[in-house]
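Morning, I've got a small favour to ask if you have a moment. It would help a lot if you went through both lines with me. Thanks so much in advance, here it is.

***
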Amino acid sequence: MTKSRNYNGDSWFWVPDRGTAAANATNESWRIRNVFTNPQVDDGVWYFSAILPLSAIFSFCNEYQKAIYGMQHKISLTGTNNTSALLRTNAAIDASGNYPALVALANDIVVNITTLKWVMRDVRPSLIKEKEVLSIIEDKKPVQLAFLNMRLESINVPTATLFIWNLQLASGVERPRFIIVGFQTGKGADQTTNNASFDLNGLNVTDAYIVLNNTRYPYSNFGTNYATKAYTKCYHEYLIFL
């Protein structure tokens, strides 16, 4: 939601879905993403490379645009036992023709990271600016570092007409600017589902609102009806967010 549909990040495997949200060959962008991460080569080994901008993983990179002097940067990779994030398939799916460039494998895929580079821009100030910066450092003046913290929470939606979801925020530290709610069904099982797509099929959400400090947002009901395509107000809020 932070990028327009015309934005393409091919170098870091991010291309918006086109035509459909299906995770197969009918989705033109899915094919592009799939070829990036699963190219076919003769020796049976897949090679790929990517450039991931810091703004995609660190919130402060979107808000703080100034030079950072004399601070250490470190990146840590934590391994998990989750193998569902890797593209896999079986003979039946491979034979269907709907999932091109996928090879049937008997075992889990092993990813070997051969090269990992952390690239930071080198800023060299003029003598006048360098003197100003050193003066601030010597005097130990505090520098405000504003950034937008992003949190992700998920629950299993109960089978009920109405349900309440309590969000936990640190009082005085976290002041919410945006709250985004999405629904997914049957995602994450394997490569045949598109984890980046959200759906409301069969849910027909008629209204949603937030109560913050006894104040309701929005102040009036959305009054949506997906069966009759009455969801213009929700889409308008989405456009405002962009």
Observations:
- The chain has five helices and two strands.
- Residues 151-242 form one domain.
- The mean pLDDT is 76.
